């Protein structure tokens, strides 16, 4: 299996366009952020902090925490095109005709997707920290970094299993391309990045808050932005309003979802999609 | 030794294989000839453990298909109809990654790749990306990939399809070299008549059934006759001379079926004054297929 994982990773990184398109949503959000999203959050910063490095700390932390959620989903989606292509072009027959078990062959795609996503997420995170250092003169605290890495791992596992399960239904690269475009467009909305929750109705917010992208984004924001929020907001009321308006705190039927419940949701989604993926592996059985 | 007994395969409502049976001796060059959709590739896919038969027993070198699949996979090398190489990787990377599925020892694998680079003749593009190679060069690497683990049996599923005539000839030379220099059993599927002429045994398959089998020369002898083609000076005069002979006329040419070429020479002794030109045409595998199935292989 190790050989196959190595092969998938090599094939993915050799195709620069594949890497680019996996990160396209991230780049689009960064562009939108530079154009107008940063101003929108900047408006929420209390007067004495406007234009300060503390304000930058808050604004940039918000966008980079959201981007970690986005890349956790779009990278495995882009990466797993290799699996779709191998099956469509019958390249996978070469592996099936070798003395490697079919289950191991199928799992090699999932494991490689997790590996590549973690790697690109670490780069994404490091890039965010460099920008924070340049714009706010600081990075997030070490403990927060550790928590971000832990969450990154869990979200990668969850979204990789989810994308793998979905892609077992996809038989052509064309269909994969269409799905990627659709997901790439929606993910900014689903994670509350293009339009912050404050601008949406309660019903839409409730639906979005029940879905993994918003839940994962909220968790990343809570860790990533904790110090910035403490610095910028002088009162708890101001901080609470910001947290609700910008998807740090999320509610379902007027009930705030605490961190432990969001983590439980993540574990639930991960298990659900893993079990579903195992069931779907039968698609790869010899017929 | 490969034995196939009563092999059946259905795809939904299509009965792709209708109980075919055959055996292949060790070291033989065995050809499956038939039109597209005859069931050749399905047979290869079942033999190479990619598909499961609905019915039938397959034994490969003493191993039973479905029971000893891993052992079978170790002794089989497969060249598929389509290339399975990764276009963005170099030839060496492709072979190393595929070879590692069989070899634990990296050094031994590298030695094997080196040997194949000389044997098959791809050393000068070993470190080139596959996407920069021609169709013929890629096909040679596909063959190298199938030979990496020194299989005892090589399955070639329409290996020359889509190649230009020169690449096809080069690849064919390579296949004959493999046959000559190794004691490998080779099973070939093809719809090209000329490719089965070198085979020890030819099995003609049509609509999922075996319709004939023998050596290429045996099939020609049984199902295709040589023909004497005559270009007459005066058609009436010639046909008058041939009134007791079986013949056909097309485009003002008289076709006389022959038992063999020598019979043609004998006939020419009496007919030479009545013709402008003559030609003895050898019966070919296309005639064999036509006589067996009532249609041309390319139809």
Describe it.
The complex is a heterodimer of chains A (about 290) and B (about 300). Chain A is mainly α. Chain A has one domain. Chain A has 13 helices and two strands; from the N terminus they run ααααααααααααββα. A two-stranded antiparallel ribbon of chain A has the order 1-2. In chain A, a hairpin with a 2-residue loop joins strand 1 and strand 2. In chain A, helix 4 runs parallel beside helix 8, helix 4 packs antiparallel against helix 11 and helix 7 packs antiparallel against helix 8. By secondary structure, chain B is α/β, with parallel strands linked by helices. Chain B folds into two domains: about 220 residues, 3-Layer(aba) Sandwich (Rossmann fold); about 60 residues, Alpha-Beta Plaits (2-Layer Sandwich). In chain B, the strands form three sheets. In chain B, strands 6-7-8-3-9-10 form a six-stranded mixed beta sheet, with helices on both faces. A four-stranded antiparallel beta sheet of chain B has the order 2-1-4-5, with helices on one face. Chain B has a four-stranded antiparallel beta sheet with strand order 12-13-11-14. In chain B, helix 6 links the parallel strand 7 and strand 8. In chain B, helix 3 packs across helix 4 and helix 4 packs across helix 5. Chain B is elongated, with a radius of gyration of 23 Å. The model of chain B has no long low-confidence stretch (mean pLDDT about 85).
